[in-house]
Amino acid sequence: MIRQVVEAPDIGIKEAVVLLDQDGRAIGRADKYRIHTKDTPLHSAFSIFLFNREGRMLVQQRAWSKQTWPGVWSNACCGHPTPGEPVADAAQRRIAEELGLYGIRLQLALPDFRYRAEHLGVVENEICPVFIGRCLTEPRPNTNEVAATDWIDWKAFIRNDPEFDEYSPWSKWEAAQLKRSGHVERLLDRQ
Fold it and tell me: Which residues have CB under 8 Å from 35's CB, separation 6+?
C-alpha cells in the first residue's frame, strides 16, 4: 500500500486546532497538519451555509492542494477555531480568508452538530457547530483554499438530487438537520 504524504504548506507558523474530549471540553491542542490521519482525534470545527437574495446556496469546490477532501464540493466554508478563539470569530475569519467575504451576519443554527467521515484514508472527527447567513455579494475565492464556487438550488440539495451525490458527507448531513430545524426557511423568509 502506498501512502501519500502531504507536507504542511510553508506559512511560517503552524496552525493549531483544539482537541476535545467526548463531552466537547477542550483538552489540548495539536498541529492541524499532523492530526488529520486515519486516527484523527476529536477536535473543534465549524461549518457555514450562505444564501443569496434568490435563496440559492453558495457551494465551493475545495482546492486540489487541500490535505483533507481535495477537490470535493461542499457548503460555503468550513474551518477550525484556533486555541482561545471564539467559534463565531473563527467563522468570520475563515469566510474572509477563503471567500473574500466580509460583514456577513452569521446565525448559529446547529450548535451541537458532530460527525465522523473518511475520504482517501483521512478521517474527519469533529464537533462542528453550523452557522447560516445571507450573502449579498459575490465571493472572491482564495485559490489556495477554493478551486471553484457556485450557487445551487437549496431545495434540490436538501432533496438529495443525484447531481449532489459527490458532495461532502458533512454538508449533506448538516443540510438534513438544517431542513428539520427550519432555520434556513426562516432566514430566507426574511428579505
Answer: 17, 19, 41, 43
Which pLDDT belongs to residue 14? 72
Q: Is 54 a catalytic residue?
A: no
How many C-alpha atoms does 109 have within 13 Å on its Cβ side? 24
Which residues contact residue 36 at a Cβ distance below 8 angstroms, ignoring those fewer than 6 apart? 67, 68, 122, 123, 124
Q: Out of 124, 126, 128, 174, which one is annotated catalytic? A: 126
**CA 72 → CA 63, 75, 99, 127, 175, distances in Å?**
8, 10, 16, 20, 16
Superfamily holding 16-189:
Nucleoside Triphosphate Pyrophosphohydrolase (3.90.79.10)
Q: Are 142 and 99 in contact (CB under 8 A)?
A: yes
- Domain chopping of the chain, boundaries: 16-189
78, 124, 135, 174: the active-site residue: 78
Largest CA distance in the chain: 54
Parallel/antiparallel/unpaired status of strands 130-134 and 46-51: parallel
126 is a catalytic site residue:
yes
pLDDT in tens, 82-125: 999 999 999 999 999 999 999 999 999 999 999 999 999 899 99
Per-residue pLDDT at 23 exceeds 80: yes
pTM here?
A: 0.91
